[in-house]
Design brief:
Two copies of one chain form a homodimer. The longest helix of chain A has 21 residues, at about 130-150. Chain A contains 20 helices and 25 strands. Helix content of chain A is about 35%, strand content about 20%. Chain A is globular and about 70 Å long. The model of chain A has no long low-confidence stretch (mean pLDDT about 95). In chain A, the strands form seven sheets. In chain A, strands 1, 2, 3, 4, 5, 6, 14, 15, 16, 17, 18 and 19 form a twelve-stranded mixed β-sheet that branches. In chain A, helix 4 packs across helix 18 and helix 9 (about 215-225) crosses helix 10 (about 245-250). Chain A has three domains: about 5-130 and about 255-440, Rossmann fold; about 130-250, Domain 2, N(10)-formyltetrahydrofolate synthetase; about 455-535, Formyltetrahydrofolate synthetase, domain 3 (Roll), CATH 3.10.410.10. At the A-B interface, strand 1, helix 7, strand 9, helix 9 and helix 10 of A face strand 1, helix 7, strand 9, helix 9 and helix 10 of B. Chains A, B: Its EC number is 6.3.4.3. Chains A, B: One of its GO terms (biological process) is tetrahydrofolate interconversion.
Chain lengths: ~575, ~575
Amino acid sequence: MNIPSDLDISRSTALEPLEDVAAQLSIGPHLLEPYGRNVAKISLEALDELPAEPTARYVVVSAITPTPLGEGKTTTTVGLGQALRHLGKRSAIAIRQPSMGPTFGIKGGAAGGGYSQVVPMEALNLHLTGDMHAVTAAHNMLAAMLDNHLHKGNALGIDPHRITWRRVLDVNDRDLRNIVTGLGGRVDGTPRQTGFDITAASEVMAVLALSTSLQDMRQRLGRIVVGYTRDGEPVTAEQLRAGGAMAVIMREAIKPNLMQTTENTPVLVHAGPFGNIAHGNSSVVADRIASRCADYLVTEAGFGADMGAERFFNIKCRTSGLRPDAAVLVATVRALKAHSGRYKVVAGKPLPAAMLAENPDDVRAGAANLRKQIDNIRLHGVSPVVAINAFPTDYHSEHEAIREIAEAEGARVAVSNHYVDGGKGAVELAEAVVAAAEEPSGFQLLYPDSADLRSKIETVATKVYGADGVSYLPAAARSLDAYEANGYGNLPVCIAKTHLSLSSDPTLLGAPTGWTLPVREVRASVGAGFIYPICGEMRTMPGLGSHPAAESIDIDEHGQITGLS
Amino acid sequence: MNIPSDLDISRSTALEPLEDVAAQLSIGPHLLEPYGRNVAKISLEALDELPAEPTARYVVVSAITPTPLGEGKTTTTVGLGQALRHLGKRSAIAIRQPSMGPTFGIKGGAAGGGYSQVVPMEALNLHLTGDMHAVTAAHNMLAAMLDNHLHKGNALGIDPHRITWRRVLDVNDRDLRNIVTGLGGRVDGTPRQTGFDITAASEVMAVLALSTSLQDMRQRLGRIVVGYTRDGEPVTAEQLRAGGAMAVIMREAIKPNLMQTTENTPVLVHAGPFGNIAHGNSSVVADRIASRCADYLVTEAGFGADMGAERFFNIKCRTSGLRPDAAVLVATVRALKAHSGRYKVVAGKPLPAAMLAENPDDVRAGAANLRKQIDNIRLHGVSPVVAINAFPTDYHSEHEAIREIAEAEGARVAVSNHYVDGGKGAVELAEAVVAAAEEPSGFQLLYPDSADLRSKIETVATKVYGADGVSYLPAAARSLDAYEANGYGNLPVCIAKTHLSLSSDPTLLGAPTGWTLPVREVRASVGAGFIYPICGEMRTMPGLGSHPAAESIDIDEHGQITGLS
């Protein structure tokens, strides 16, 4: 089966004027602020104009524990949104904005794929409307004001060794991970060790994603904790008088970006927080708008259901107050085969040839992961739908094996061919989703705000990850005590662990049991509104490979981009 | 005289739809790409559609040597553009995009002022269409690819001690001036000393400003020299295979941004290179477009006529092939009084009270600077027009003193009240400019491409600055020899010296004589296309003051910005 490249499909799409795309959701042209011809921001006045109560069924797309190659969650999200329109539903899709660093690093673009893409893919993958850059600018202005505060006498008594605020850039640059700043002479600042993270890892990005309005964002930015005084008191952006200027820098970024799929379905692209040290979900503001003008709102949560979906439920929905009606679990033949433990899948390399042979037994041998992730959805009172994202190398017997596993768990299941066939290929999936979403939602948070931080961590670890318990390094325990004392104990937790296993050990496939979650350290995103325990090495600044994608990207003699995939 | 704040004037302006603004220049709506409601990019297809030959008289606005407070060159540029329309001319204005760092640092916005502003000033001063951010992203991707090249084995044999490419951010952050990167472990890069400049100081910004087309920009980006091998050979962005991806990142940034003045005059805002280590002029592309659809194109060149105008003539016009018809020299009572040497003007502080008393003798005592800058315009065969930018604290006798000095030199002269009265206040100036521009232009470059680098430097130093000669530190002499050997001897020179004196010593006012220009070192912007000898300390990353402007900037309960000035 030969289908054109994503870039070629994107270019050959007949784009509708965005006014027409918005009109599908009864969003009038007066609420659109065009950015170039094919992207528009939606004015926050939409929140005042639209009905106060949600009209949409709210569907989150998650996955089983993925291989390092990913299992096509974005393309399934897009395909489902397209298919719902084939069923006569007014559908809207909400996804994260991709980071530019990886676009020029290893993976090329991140706009879905095949005939279920967000278009134009160049706009999505490059700058979009500048929201990422605004996050970078706001984040680094706070860093400059913080170091300037030290330089100008440190009236707040900030302990230079307890500064937690680093700087950010949207680039894959390993050399910026660990740096010493403030060298030179007396007028050049205060020497200290620090570093850069990629912009997606910025707390400002998480703030953007979790804010419910411009005013709420202003308050959250002010609450950001940048470090601690010598007495251990937290120091905030507000104390540095930076919160207002940061909000001003972010005042356009808070407006969601409207684009369309290859079938002209409306897509809101907004915010792109990391999926490990942050919650990995697109914005609350986009969902607040789309949920009030669509019949169905389909959104994607990062990584597997233990990661993105758990945070979707317990962080994002806790903040927004929106109640999900169904959850899609993307499963692939290759991922289930990988969970059998019989193969080794490596990022950036082709699959082992043996994995491509017809072998439903391999699929069945990986069933435990799918079962556990179905449970993880049910834990939150939401109906799961298993979406088998079909690949040309799959066999019918292998799809059937997945179907049997899902049905044995009582979950709805459908094969989806959206990559090759667009929305038409996902109609069976859309029907299953509609059936699931029309059941009354029993959505419930996994833990109340009032539980202490250790119980929150332990609840997620034992109920979602399947751990026997949690262990804390002394520094982690001290941080938890300090955060409770600082009044942050009411925040939800965002556990930073590998996405390649239900456990904290990326080599443990399937549904590992008999293990303990080791919490190495704990940090706080007080502005965004969560505490994040760290279990394992979390890389917050990627590096480039020997041959970065950037080397192959160029413009041709007509000014067209080449090499973006 | 009480006039509202710049922000209030900007907000109270009746904005015209940009289609109507563009229509003044016969630029059709199909050539506009809207970015929000009040800014649009102009498609480069305009270059194909418009007449091949310039239709416009081309006017550059420069100044006498300014005080640290600046003498209102942008507001005069805007006022003149407005006034030309009062005379029935189709006028266009072209200016640089302000840098966000200083907006949140000391000076607030940079959009002109009073009733001669570019509006909306918030859009101009914050992000605009993201061109600055694109420069940051392209610049830093090259830096990451360079460090990654070292990390992955350094096949090109780059000498880590001879890397000249730093990183950039659009923020005032003194702590980033001198840093050590690549610390941490083996996978975290190669430890070395480097630093960040502000984005306006990036060579990528100078490339953006000097490129004549997208393809030309692509080639210039590839020619950027990032350092030298152990054998002393230059290493380019092309050799690192970064030029294509950089051009892709910059492919929207190359399109000029259309805005309007408080009187709806079209303004092209495009590129913002530094005025000392770079040429300090807005883009060639904007001028190529506007010169072919207006009767008058008014553009601003940074700092005094020895700096911005000299580079306008010898770098920008050399590149674009456009021929200027007149040059405006902005003069103020306060600047001429300062050149008397009788007062000390300090940035960020009020003028000495004694300077505000009526004193035409002080003005006459500062005449030498104005005379020399008039000469500097004439050196290039262009007609000078002295614009007396009126302040409410001026006296008629003081304006008359300036008029007498200018007329004694045979220059046209006019008092301009655009700040208070908008275009109406600059009609006398506009009439003088029209008279000057309608004379046949005798424009000539000061030196040919073929002159060697030392003669180019010496020509500018002796003819424009009034130096007796030039001295070179040994390192500077070695660099000049190396650049000639590398084949860069045909490039023009951009002499980086203080803008506060015609000389290289900022404390020497008036028109200093009997001094020698000391060239400390010489660097090359091979991609942008100039060699820059450095004479004195050039700060390429500003710091913040004790109370940065950011501390007072916020959003109010209606989401309106407050504190931006």
